[in-house]
UniProtKB/TrEMBL annotation, chains A, B:
Keyword Flavoprotein: yes
UniProt keywords, alphabetically: FAD, Flavoprotein
Binding site residues for FAD: P67, F68, G69, G70, G71, T72, S73, E200, G201, T202, L203, G204, V205, I206
Active site: Y394
The species this protein was found in: Amycolatopsis pretoriensis
Cofactors that this protein relies on: FAD
Family the UniProt entry places it in: Belongs to the FAD-binding oxidoreductase/transferase type 4 family.
InterPro entries on file: Alkyl-DHAP_Synthase, FAD-bd_oxidored_4_C, FAD-bd_PCMH, FAD-bd_PCMH-like_sf, FAD-bd_PCMH_sub2, FAD-linked_Oxase-like_C, Oxid_FAD_bind_N, Vanillyl_alc_oxidase_C-sub2
SUPFAM superfamilies recorded: FAD-binding/transporter-associated domain-like (SSF56176), FAD-linked oxidases, C-terminal domain (SSF55103)
MF GO annotations: alkylglycerone-phosphate synthase activity; FAD binding
Record-given protein name: Alkyldihydroxyacetonephosphate synthase
Sequence ranges assigned to domain FAD-binding PCMH-type in this UniProt record: 35-216
Keyword Zinc in record: no
UniProt-annotated site: Important for enzyme activity, residues: R251
Length: 472, 472
């Protein structure tokens, strides 16, 4: 039904859809003897109707289906697990690549699930619009993936998390199509859009997403500040968040991450900058990136408020170069990992979020857990998403790779971090659950929560073909 | 277990928990021969643990449970239906009246479910805080009811809808306690808080709600504007919403509602005002109420932006008197109905929301449906909640009561309005589903959506004791 040329069974095609981009995924891809599941075939439907037809056939023949977008999951979300099925396909949505419609009056655009970040911006740009959703996975990740994983972009303070942008979703399920979202807000029972968003391919294959869009911003202004230490930085960000003065991008590095920036950022005159900051009482700086996007009037107005509050919080302005260098390097992180891996480094990130009164304890506990597990390690942390009631914490870990058991080395460290997170914060602020976080979900949503998700799944997917082994 | 004095079986107590506040409820209460279900007993537990114990007993004895808060439902949400149960109790949560905790750093307060609006503000006010949730039902409705029905307050543009305020919920269910909400945002699967919010007592009895709170505003400023007609008014509100310049309260009346305000508002010098507006090109005014709350600095800043945009949209300032008179009369609507009922008037409200490109067609269709059903009728409409992608529409209907069949008269008109809404907007923006809107839910969330809700209910409430006959 999709055409023979859109069913791929060669090894290269199947391997390309077998893993995501976690450190362990990269290790597996580099290791000749690695053992990981690979889909039996890759199927590339052309649109929502073909997705539904493929699902119907998979129900008939009891074939597992792993929806595949950009393949950027770092939690095992696209692992080709087959559960109790004898075969499994990767359902690659790359051909669902259209801008379906634009409602300029309502500021809503409908995009197909396979549209990647840059293409979404290009298609919307033709209408003078933007989505403004720029996570680090932006270059490869897709609209459907953003919705399936409750993604949060780097400018979430301004544009919102992805779920804040979604006005409607269209899903293909083993029980037929399911469409949700008829109004900007509703009291017609529970918000089932919020059940579809974050369902990670287990409750249906998202084929189209209706999204709130905005005029493309004529002005983008990014700047850097330095705060005297973590506590001052965290309090400055909390002050902004609780006074509605956050910049669209607001990103605070801790002292360790700032030191690495100072060491590696070629655009900064480091010695002069250290002297400049020290003269202003900032000897252990925490860098803060702030960025505004919008009309000149709007950016000026909001920048004035943010700046006024930052100065009152003791922030010292570093200037545009720091902001711009962050903006231009914002997608480089994942690409740098290959070079580090070549040099025998274990490098990975993990993230969480908590209410403000738990943020410091959570950061301390996760750092301690990682260090206890790994021994000598660099553990850096930043806040990239702030809210009135709390913030995200994003950790980057580097340590010498244990070449005798590199997988076990990281699995133990990750488990220690997850144990530290449980009870203080969420097991994931924007990476999702996948396989890696599934053991910790019950502690967060309760055994009843897990049972409710399973009941929802059994309803829309009675034979359990959708993304076996993920989420619950 | 709750003490004999907290189990009421007298007629007055049972009748007082038998209905909400819809027009049909008021008719039933006035009619000597009216036939409507009444709970067999009223049970008043003292706290979350007692709620759980009562549920456990009701499971054992297969007794239906209707959670009861302020009793302000206008959609039959507290009707004492018993489904397949031989007995049913009203579980009155009035004794769950405590402020449990305040986390000032995270700006989170935990309130028990039975706390009424004014008491919530008083308890929080002792800590210098406010919730800012002021729906028309504020004086009687409860925290648990706000959560159970996805309430939206009159200042939702500033403070958010109730679901935006909820960081966590604690529910008693027939399967035990269920707690949700560990972080300000999460990608740990679907947001199950959004399944609990709007569950209308069918998925559990909400016993505590964790809420984002804000400092009590030192300044409140309310003003009135007039726009030249509905289209100009709607476009002015859309402009504010899409430029993040909404006042905390933003409320646009259509020409008909404005005419009634002009006729009834004793605080306005009507003749002079009409002359003043006509001289400025506004011969068929639509009143717009705008109100800001916050610090003097914040109110001044945001008021400047709103005002600048309103003037560009052709709005003519009417002044503070109009804003303040609305603010002081904001809860009077429901109380005025008794007087109108005495005079043989059929008076009721209904509401919906839609994306901007559907707003006018929806308003026209609902007005036409009501007028076609009722014959001569006054149908007024206002926008009280605006979003980037759309707005709510709230209708007030007055017509001569058909004394031979007053119930049928309104049931037919309401059904016609609901049919007009279906397909263009949501069946409820903030009144919820209850009994009255249940027939229209499937058209909005799909048969799969209804099945998923039923599956969730079967999971947490296998014997179906919770609020039989509501929602689904």
């Amino acid at each position: 039904m999709v055409g023979a040329e859109n069913v791929l069974v060669d090894d290269a095609a199947r391997l390309a859809r077998a893993t995501g981009l976690s450190y362990l995924d990269l290790l597996r891809r580099r290791s000749a003897g690695a053992d990981f599941p690979v889909p039996d075939a890759v199927v590339l439907p052309a649109g929502p109707d073909e997705v539904q037809e493929v699902l119907d056939v998979c129900v008939t023949h009891d074939v597992g289906v792993v929806p595949f977008g950009g393949g950027t999951s770092v939690v095992g979300g696209v692992a080709a697990l087959r559960g109790d099925k004898s075969s499994v396909i990767a359902l690659d949505l790359v051909r669902l690549d259209a801008l379906v419609s634009v409602d300029a009056e309502s500021r809503i655009a409908v995009l197909q699930a396979g549209v990647r970040g840059p293409e979404a911006e290009r298609l919307l740009g033709e209408h003078g619009l933007t989505l403004g959703h720029i996570p680090q996975s932006f270059e490869r990740a897709t609209i459907g993936g953003f919705a399936a994983t409750r993604s949060a972009g780097q400018a979430s303070s301004g544009y919102g998390r992805f779920e804040d942008m979604v006005t409607g979703v269209r899903l293909a399920t083993p029980r037929g199509e399911w469409k949700l979202g008829v109004a900007p807000a509703s009291a017609a029972g529970p918000d089932l859009r919020q059940l579809a968003i974050g369902s990670e391919g287990t409750l249906g294959v998202i084929t189209e997403v209706s999204l709130r869009v905005r005029p493309a911003p004529p002005v983008r202004r990014y700047e850097g500040y330095a705060l005297p230490g973590w506590e001052a930085g965290r309090e400055a960000v909390r002050d902004l968040a609780q006074h509605h003065a956050l910049a669209d991008v607001t990103r605070l590095s801790d002292v360790d991450e700032t030191e690495v920036s100072l060491a590696l950022n070629a655009g900064l005159k480091t010695t002069a900058l250290r002297r400049y900051l020290a003269a202003r009482g900032v000897s252990h700086p925490c860098f803060l990136i702030v960025g505004w996007e919008g009309t000149a009037h709007d950016v000026a107005l909001r920048r004035r408020e943010t700046t006024r509050r930052l100065k009152a919080s003791g922030a010292v302005r570093v200037g545009k170069a720091l902001g711009e260098s962050w903006r231009h390097g914002r997608f480089a992180g994942p690409r740098q990992r290959d070079a580090l891996l070549d040099q025998g480094v274990c490098v990975e990130t993990l993230e969480t979020a908590a209410y403000w009164s738990n943020v410091d304890e959570l950061r301390d506990d996760v750092r301690a857990a990682l260090t206890a597990s790994l021994g000598r390690a660099i553990v850096m942390c930043h806040i990239s998403h702030a809210y009135e009631t709390g913030a995200s914490l994003y950790f980057t870990v580097l340590t010498a790779r244990d070449e005798t058991d590199p997988v076990g080395q990281w699995q133990r460290a990750k488990a220690a971090a997850c144990e530290a997170i449980t009870g203080l914060g969420t097991i994931s602020h924007h990476h999702a659950v996948g396989v890696d976080h599934a053991p910790y979900l019950e502690a967060e949503i309760g055994s009843l929560g897990v049972e409710v998700l399973r009941a929802a799944k059994s309803t829309v997917d009675p034979s359990g073909i959708l993304n076996p082994g993920k989420l619950v």
